[in-house]
Specification:
With 428 residues, the chain is mainly alpha-helical. The protein has 19 helices and six strands. The longest helix has 23 residues. The structure holds acetyl coenzyme *A. The site of acetyl coenzyme *A has 19 residues, from loops. Acetyl coenzyme *A binds next to loops.
Length: 428
């Protein structure tokens, strides 16, 4: 590409500039298309649309590459922690020791919820899904910080840390509420992930001491979920942020978008699928036949990805971790055997091979979470905890961009053309 492309529209040539990213991706800048030609582009579900320029995360779906701020995900998974990676995503560089201490200090200082928040939890029925509680409570938390609404740049680090810290407290409180158990307050002496497990599983007077391998496995799950460029929930966060809504409102919208089974809700859907296959005494073969025949609109949950047409690099790391954690905890799970069988068949089956469908991050993460005692309806909540730094980084990028405008897609209208109103009596 030489920096421009020429299109012929209605027989007339127009020249549009191209934009080349640092990893060589090419985009055609169509910002002037409508003013020059009257036409817009139509790309439902945005399979070919770049909605922004971003310096946070790079994915090469053809090669199975994922990098946060230029660091390969496999290297971060091996050497970093969730909190260090969160800092990297939000602020662009790995922290120095002083920066990491300051960031951790802010997380600790903000981990308590305002006592008034307890009343909000009381308002939810026992049937409430924890994702409903999470999104509502993130928004509710913003009410206790009025300066958030018109937050100035210098307040950003406080609000970012407050959100990362409190999403974990809210998640644990909502689990305890659903179980009818008393809330457990965070402990200042514990690190982020261990503190979460403490709030989930301790009892008054009886502290849970999470095993280091469990803490490590969960920290890795958070890290692997920390960002994934312009997916459905992150695009939602950016869309809401573009209206200059506050950080908590934007993140709360991200939680709602994440909830769906085609997105973050897939980790719960995978386990439900595996349980169903197990209950029916199938080893996965019958189920896959139904999927391929599109009987009952079934999908192999945890497989396929809009961007990855090769292995999801996160799935490779999670699968390895899954084997390790189950062995360390001496857990033998028949669902893991079914998952492995499904993967083995699918990776050699024409239906999946021709469509380039591979396991995604959700295929094995649920089995780890189940092994460490996380209930199924909390799986997507844990995804949201992990994704929070990515949402915050994307929010910041929108706010810091002097050229940012409100996101407002157009449409091709396909409804009725102009007609006149008939009074009710004439319509019968
Ligand atoms: N099982 C069976 N068939 C599938 C699957 C699957 N998991 N995924 C895609 N296909 C088929 C589609 O039916 C379609 O077949 P066709 O050509 O015969 O019509 C073809 O593959 C292309 O699929 P699309 O739906 O067009 O792919 P799209 O990019 O729109 O969807 C998605 C991607 C939503 C992830 C899809 O693969 C899916 O539903 N997977 C299962 C849910 C899931 O695991 N979601 C988590 C994604 S990762 C994340 O968000 C964290």
């Amino acid at each position: 590409m030489n920096g421009t492309v020429e299109l012929i529209i209605d027989g007339k040539p127009i020249t549009l500039p191209t934009v080349v990213g640092t990893e060589g991706e090419v985009g055609i800048d169509i910002a002037t298309l409508r003013s020059k030609t009257g036409a817009i582009t139509l790309d439902p579900a945005y399979g070919n649309t770049g909605a922004c320029k971003s310096a946070i995360t790079f994915i090469d779906g053809e090669k199975g590459v994922l990098q946060y701020r230029g660091y390969d995900i496999a290297e971060l998974a091996q050497k970093s922690t969730f909190i260090e990676t969160a800092y990297l995503l939000i602020y662009g560089e790995l922290p120095t020791s002083a920066q990491l201490n300051e960031f951790s200090g802010l997380l600790t200082a903000n981990e308590m919820l305002h006592e008034g928040m307890r009343h909000h939890f009381e308002g939810f029925p026992p049937t409430a899904h924890p994702m409903a509680i999470l999104s509502s409570m993130i928004n509710a938390a913003s009410s206790y910080h009025p300066n958030l609404i018109h937050a100035r740049e210098e307040h950003f680090p406080f609000h970012a840390a407050r959100l990362i810290s409190q999403v974990r407290t809210i998640a644990a409180f909502s689990y305890r509420k659903a179980q009818g158990l008393p809330s457990i307050y965070p402990k200042t002496t514990l690190k982020y992930t261990a503190n979460f497990l403490h709030m989930m599983f301790s009892h008054p007077g009886e502290d849970c001491e999470p095993k280091p391998e469990v803490v490590k496995a969960l920290d890795l799950i958070f890290l692997l979920h920390a960002d994934h460029e312009q997916n459905c929930s992150t695009s939602t966060v950016r869309m809401v942020a573009s209206s200059r809504a506050n950080l908590f409102a934007s993140a709360s919208a991200g939680v709602c978008a994440l909830w769906g089974p085609l997105h973050g809700g897939a980790n719960q859907a995978v386990l439900e699928m595996l349980e169903e296959i197990h209950k029916e005494g199938d080893d996965g073969t019958k189920f896959l036949t139904a999927v391929k025949n599109k009987t009952g609109n079934r999908k192999l949950m945890g497989f396929g990805h809009r961007v990855y047409k090769n292995f999801d690099p996160r799935a490779v790391i999670i699968k390895e971790q899954c084997d390790k954690v189950l062995a360390q905890l001496h857990v033998s799970d028949p669902l893991l055997d079914i998952a492995k069988k499904l993967e083995e068949i699918a990776l050699h089956d024409e239906y999946f091979v021709s469509r380039r469908l591979y396991p995604n991050v959700d295929f094995y993460s649920g089995i780890i979470m189940r092994a460490i005692g996380i209930p199924m309806d909390m799986f997507t909540v844990l995804f949201a905890i992990g994704r929070m730094p990515g949402w915050i980084a994307n929010f910041k990028e929108v706010m810091d961009d002097p050229e940012s405008r409100i996101s407002r897609p157009r449409q091709i209208y396909t409804g009725a053309t102009l007609r006149t109103y008939k009074p009710l009596a004439e319509r019968d």
